Automatic annotation (TrEMBL):
This is Family 1 glycosylhydrolase. Belongs to the glycosyl hydrolase 1 family. PANTHER family: GLYCOSYL HYDROLASE, LP05116P. Transmembrane segments: none annotated. Keywords: Glycosidase, Hydrolase. Signal peptide: none annotated. It comes from Streptomyces cellulosae.
Length: 471
């Protein structure tokens, strides 16, 4: 399938709002991905001079243990062995992820992450893979995302919708954190030589206005996303709300010694990044949205969020991707800077797992992919990130993903993340500075030495606002 045909096939997709009907609808067939992998690999080579020498793969727990604990698919294990040996033979460093959202059916049927036993089974799974493959794996990631299988599934009911239990689903958050700590300890006990870490979904954004209540709303969003997972992981304590209550501990799922296990030291922390949010206090919704939009189906998600003290609204006058995410190159660096200000030196080295700049509308006059525009946007994003590394934040890796990665979730939830594209016509595209990258900001990068990125500070300061007129 050619890239041009692929672009056209995806443009026909309705990237609309997540509602009960769209969640129940069957997914369109997935396109082929090879051409896009080569395209974005070339982007990084052109911009930084770096050619990737690592390969990240998912071990596949459901495939390796399909029928129960201790029951291994020997053919699947042999395929893993051959894949690792082949990568090493061609000079590529293997990186293995143990969990990519899905559990083996026998565990899912027993309650999934709501069941404490799942954490013990995961540790045993990690130990077996550490014994078999620990001499060949460069990096171990326990999970591609801690929030998806727990907060999104058992709390919010995003996939499938029928499983959302609200706060009663919060034990799943505790159990996946416990599983990460136990698996980290189990891998180290086997003598596995690679670095070990996990991945969290980094959430960041901007208050919709200068109103202090909007700034407080943004802090509440970050508490229920970033802090819900990182407070126990990095500080050894569950997140506490403004009412001095720990929602996770209030469920009774925390046992003595759990938090010490959860706080097991990580060699690195993966940050999965999607898009920045524009956040407002619920009482300010009529100020930042037109009345008809405020009452429309586009705000279905806010009926859930207002109970937590915040709401999400579209950015004004900011260009968006084909699927509605705002194009704000500094958003990632701003979110990482906020994380550093919150946790400081307790943060392990950070590896950014990014969704990249896969905008299907970036085409030139002839209808082909606009490589220059896409690379300019990537250069700007890396430039802001380079400013953080120059200021002392330990960013040890950056992974560039295409629009096709996590495509299933994009089909269902794209507009939920941004509350839809503004109703007015697309704003003019602002110029993207192209000369900010600093030599040495990324290991081995052959990039020009220019001035450092502007607007980045690692000292506490009032939060920046992206309200009306920001671009």
């Amino acid at each position: 399938m050619s890239d041009g045909f692929l672009h056209e096939s995806l443009r026909r997709v309705d990237w609309g709002v997540a509602t009960a009907d769209t969640l129940a609808a069957p997914l369109p067939p997935l396109p082929e991905r090879g051409g896009h992998f080569r395209q974005w690999t070339e982007d990084l080579r052109r911009l930084t001079g770096v050619v990737a020498d690592t390969h990240r793969m998912v071990a596949g727990w459901p495939q390796l243990q399909p029928d129960g604990p201790g029951d291994w698919d020997r053919h699947a294990l042999d395929r893993c062995d051959r894949a690792l040996d082949a990568l090493l033979a061609q000079g590529t460093r293997p990186c293995v992820t143990l969990l990519d959202r899905s559990l083996p059916p026998w565990l899912d049927a027993a309650g999934g992450w709501l069941a404490r036993d799942t954490a013990e089974h995961f540790a045993a799974f990690a130990a077996e893979l550490g014994r078999r493959f620990g001499d060949r794996v460069e990096r171990w990631i326990t999970s591609t995302d801690l929030a998806g299988p727990t907060l999104a599934d058992h709390v919010a009911g995003m996939y499938p919708p029928s499983r959302g239990a609200g706060r009663a689903g919060l034990p799943a958050v505790h159990h996946i954190l416990l599983a990460n700590g136990l698996a980290t300890q189990a891998l180290r006990a086997t003598g596995a030589r690679g670095r070990i870490g996990t991945t969290v979904t980094l959430v960041g954004g901007y208050p919709a206005t200068d109103d202090p209540y909007d700034r407080l709303a943004l802090e509440r969003l970050e508490s229920w996303t970033n802090r819900l997972f990182l407070d126990p992981l990095l500080l050894g304590e569950h997140m506490v709300t403004e009412e001095d209550v720990s929602p996770v501990e209030a469920t009774g799922c925390v046992h003595p010694g759990d938090l010490e296990t959860i706080a097991t030291e990580q060699d690195l922390l993966g940050l999965s990044w999607h898009t920045p949010f524009r956040v407002t206090a619920p009482e300010n919704l009529p100020r930042v949205l037109p009345t008809r939009t405020c009452q429309s189906a586009l705000n279905e998600v806010n009926r859930l969020l207002v109970g937590l003290g915040f709401a999400i609204v579209p950015f004004d006058d900011v260009e968006t991707t084909a699927y509605g995410w705002p194009i704000i190159p500094e958003g990632l660096a701003d979110a990482v800077a906020e994380l550093y200000e919150l946790y400081g030196e307790v943060l392990p080295p950070l590896s950014v797992v990014d969704n990249g700049m896969g905008d299907l509308d970036l085409v030139d006059d002839s209808g082909h992919s606009d490589d220059d525009r896409r690379r300019a946007l990537l250069r700007a994003r890396l430039s802001w990130l380079a400013g953080l590394t120059a200021a002392g934040v330990d960013v040890c890796g950056y992974e560039y993903w295409s629009v096709l990665d996590n495509l299933e979730a994009k089909f269902r939830y794209t507009r939920l993340y941004t509350m839809a594209v503004p109703d007015h016509e697309a704003p003019p595209r602002p110029p993207i500075p192209s000369d900010w990258l600093r030599r040495g900001a990324f290991a081995g990068a052959a990039v020009p030495e220019e001035g450092r990125a502007r607007g980045l500070s690692l000292v506490p300061s009032p939060r920046r606002t992206r309200g009306a007129g920001a671009s």
